[in-house]
Specification:
The chain is α/β, with parallel strands linked by helices. It is built from 14 helices and 16 strands. A 5-stranded mixed sheet has the order 6-5-4-7-11, sandwiched between helices. Strands 14-13-12-15-16 form a 5-stranded mixed sheet, covered by helices on one side. Strand 13 (219-225) and strand 14 form a beta hairpin. Helix 1 crosses helix 3, helix 2 (29-36) packs across helix 3 (40-52) and helix 6 packs across helix 14. The radius of gyration is 23 Å and the shape is globular. It binds zinc ion.
Length: 404
Amino acid sequence: MQRGSFQWMKTLNKSIILNKIRTSGPISRAQIAKDIQLTPPTVSSIVKELIQQGIVRESAQGTSQGGRKPTMLIINSTEFYVIGIDAGPRTVKFVLADLSGGIKDEQITPVNRGITTQQFIHTLNEGVQRLISAQKPLADKIVGIGVAMHGVVKVEEGISEFAPNLDLHDVAIKRELEKVFDYEVKVENDARAMALGEAWFGSSSGVKSMLALNIGSGIGAGLMIDGKLFHGEYDLAGEIGHMTLDLHGERCTCGNKGCLQTVASGPALEKRARRLVKEGKAAGLASLAGGKPEQITGELIYQAAVQGDEDSKSILEETGTYIGIGLTNLIHIINPSKIVIGGGVSNAGDMILLPIKHTIEERALTAEAKQTEIAISPLKENATALGAVALMLTELFDPMAANV
Ligand SMILES: [Zn+2]
């Protein structure tokens, strides 16, 4: 779908009606009119347009409250698609998803520190192109590209201002992608996109305030308050990976010492595990890695821990403790209703979740704070890519959600 034609959906009443059908469908026209306080003729004429445009369709008839049975409406979720990009420090993942978050196809490209701005843009262009080529019949149904970029993002301009893990500055992602593709592009920080995706597709819709923590090669947090993403004055809110935990700790990619990221990210875990294996410890992990410390990945550490390797278990436990300390700090500042954890490290499930909960229980100030709901994202490693998809969907369904 061409960039301009996306605009037709973006009128306020259309968005409100679409969102009502999305969240409450199957629903009748009369019920929509009642719930959102528009007149029945207004609802009918907008619904007619939405049906013509293919985004809404009629489903089975509902139950009658006397008189004719009403026709129910639902979102025609496979009529339109969005490309979601999870641009992390080590890989860029591209997904093609329908309006309900169903992933139709995905592509992954590795990236390395030392990549230039041009090479990075090329990686994005090429990945999108590959996805479109693989799904040619759907190309006309794509309504846009959402990009979840790690690091600090200038949201309005769609610029990656600073991505410390790749040492990239001022990459005009939106402008460059819109130059090549005739789709609307939205760019957001990865953890904030993840928070949006969690609220949109995960199990956190309707939660009053939610903090989504993305722990992978880096660590970031996205905050939703009253259904809206919180950005802060200069789009910096949520850079929790660079919260200092140890004044004399290891040097971080950002230049400071002892950031949370230096002790609790995927690479930090791997580094610790490699050191142990080199010292002749973590025998179970060493054998899984074929005796080669450089082969150790987060996945292998988890497997070794599951198989009973005590040193691997300790690594995950220690990581959970550090994350728990970071989260306790955040609970004391923000006091969210719920915290959701996604990203690669969250694949360790309870091995990481239990020490996190334990640490918060031990350290939080009040009984309520100790009981803050903490869960692993049901979207797991797709949480960020689906968050990128949700960036475009908020444009369509709920323009206020992404605009704080
Ligand atoms: Zn840092």
